[in-house]
Amino acid sequence: MKSYKSSCPVNLxxxxxxxxxxxxxxxxxxxxxxxxxxxxxxxxxxYYAYNYKESLKYSARLVxxxxxxxxxxxxxxGYNFIxxxxxxIDDIEKAQRNYERCLLYAMKSKNDTxxxxxxxxxxxxxxxxxxxxxxSIEYYKKAYDIGKRLNIPAEMxxxxxxxxxxxxxSGKFEEAYPYLKDAERxxxxxxxxxxxxxxNFLFGKYYTSKEQYSxxxxxFQSAISDAEAGGHVIEASSxxxxxxxLLKAQGKKAEAYDALLKHMENEDRIYDSKKIKHLExxxxxxxxxxxxxxxxxxxxxxxxxxxxxxxxKHTIYAVSIGAIIMLLFLLTLFKTNRFKRVVIKELSVxxxxxxxAKEKAEALSRSKTxxxxxxxxxxxxxxxxxxxxxxxxxESKDVEKNKEYLTSLKFSGDYLLSLINDVLQLxxxxxxxVVLSPREFNIFKLVEKVIASFEYAAQENKNVLHVALDKNxxxxxxxxxxxxxxxxxxxxxxxxxxxxxxxxxxxxTHQLDKGKHRLHFSIKDDGEGIPKxxxxxxxxxxxxxxxxxxxxxxxxxxxxxxxRLLQLFGSEIKLESDIGEGATFxxxxxxxxxxxxxxxxxxxxxxxxxxxxxxxxxxxxxxxQVVTRKVLxxxxxxxxxxxxxxxxxxxxxxxxxxxxLMDINMPDINGIETTRSIRRFDTKTPVIxxxxxxxxxxxxxxxxxxxxxxxxxxxxxxxxxxxxxxxxTIADYESHRLVTSTAS
Length: 744
What we know:
The protein has helices at residues 12-25, 30-48, 52-69, 72-88, 92-109, 112-126, 133-150, 153-169, 173-187, 193-209, 213-230, 233-249, 253-300, 305-395, 403-430, 443-453, 455-460, 481-497, 558-568, 600-609, 622-633, 645-654, 671-678, 695-698, 701-704, 717-743; strands at 439-441, 464-469, 477-479, 503-513, 516-525, 574-577, 583-591, 614-618, 638-642, 659-662, 687-691, 709-712. It has 744 residues and is of the alpha/beta class. Among the domains are: 1-150 and 158-165, Tetratricopeptide repeat domain (Serine Threonine Protein Phosphatase 5, Tetratricopeptide repeat), CATH 1.25.40; 435-591, 2-Layer Sandwich (Heat Shock Protein 90), CATH 3.30.565; 600-743, Rossmann fold (3-Layer(aba) Sandwich), CATH 3.40.50.2300. A five-stranded mixed sheet has the order 2-4-5-7-6. The longest helix has 91 residues, at 305-395. It catalyses: ATP + protein L-histidine = ADP + protein N-phospho-L-histidine. It is an enzyme of class 2 (transferase). Pfam families: HATPase_c (PF02518), HisKA (PF00512), Response_reg (PF00072), TPR_8 (PF13181). Residues 281-308 form a coiled coil.
């Protein structure tokens, strides 16, 4: 808990008000009240002039005289000042004791304002320890109830502010918020820069916890402005520290560092003032002991003059020792401060160097990420056209005689896409940008497709592919089939690359494991084999063992990607091999069965429901337009096509579509901005992003712009149909519900 929370030393106006209330409440002799008022004035004036010793002296005299004259209200005010002085010099135990005395005599005098101060000050004392936080909040609430009954905005604001502060310090941000809002309302009635700075600082901490960084920034800046305008060094230090932590959370390291320097500058000022405070505290402690000794001596003077002389001797000894201690303390502080400044200067230089190096490293990392993102789209887009057109041509009966060449073309395109994806995939895994996406799949069909993709490569190296799958494996499993395919493609491709005139065996066995299906994969070859001393290295990035001269096939990333993808599955790759004896790679995957399976018949039903639907295709690439249009029209859908965002906006305004397929990267106005413009006049038509840019790179931008879903190119046709059907069905349902509601 911060020790500089709002406290309640009396200002001059409040002081005069209290004196006036005392005047009305007590009908004692005028000269008695004048003496008490004079002592109270002097205690107040000396405190605000930071003459704590003199203020303490007048406060002690006030308590003594008020006790003799039976004025409990003045006793309470004297103890209040003594408590404030001890709190100012960090003697918390004595501060608490005097605040409790203040509360006792304030209740005797039935002075609600003094009672309110006592509750608030005791709240500050108990709020400095986590174990007494609840007791602190109870005191603040009592102070607020009195302030509300008396209709004093300053007291209500202070109590609400302190309760909110206590919850913020405890990390209970939601519980703090209503109290901060109440304090804000009362502050408007009785504004001052210190309270305003503290309140803005607490709002900054609250919105930082909610990750609402824009609001948090505004409040921290206001807190800094108020603190500096009012010369409040402690508030400025806290505000800059909070602002620095906010900037750091947003990744603005340079700005966070600058704010931290401002915090340190203010801390230096606080440090200097604390040195003075500690010296003053030592002096006060000594002077108070001296004053108490004098009081005791004067009381006992009638009984024993000799005792008074002895007390005086002790006082002289105490003065001498105190002076020596103070001198040594001052010398130590001087040396410590000089050493601190040297260290801070050296640290500042080192921090500057580290910050510059860090900024360079971050710039390089951003450049790398931007490069991968750009090259991803630029390479995937033309490959989508190559693979898509090849697929369409292979399905045509008129090109049967050229099917062999088309098969080779498609394999080359698939291979090039795989090579590019290797590089991009490794970058995404390194950046924690890859997560598993479990979907229903058929392991038998997956393996069939993987093996079929390697038939041409196997024939070139005169290899034979053997497949053995356990018949007990369920036909429908739940898992990330894309990542499993990628693992198998890399391992089989690696085996084919280093095996000539040989065999490659793929086997998958099945075993139940606590209600789940454990699949054991084995990829074995009788090729060159891998030396024992190289078997760990082959899983490192870009390393290829036994690479032949002029062999340019492969990226050297396949096994590194396999290892990292299996880590996502919670599995690991194992290798058994030796020179001339081939190699065997094994791993296990633990998979579920899908809760809701979609059968072949259901998929046919879906595509049947898409007939006669009208779709707008927005894509600046002509080949992509042809491929997408052909895929949809084969299912009986009607398509309009445009190649830029402006035409797309016009077409949606002039026509009624069941769905819009929107490319993201287009000249002039991209797909996100185009969708945002469409949503200004059409909130019902589903818009699906059909893009080569990964969803990890786009984040929430798609959905914030108003898009309903996305499909990543190159895509599986069945996936495209499922996404299209799902979104058209949802739109139909919403439209039907709206019509029904209006009719009723």
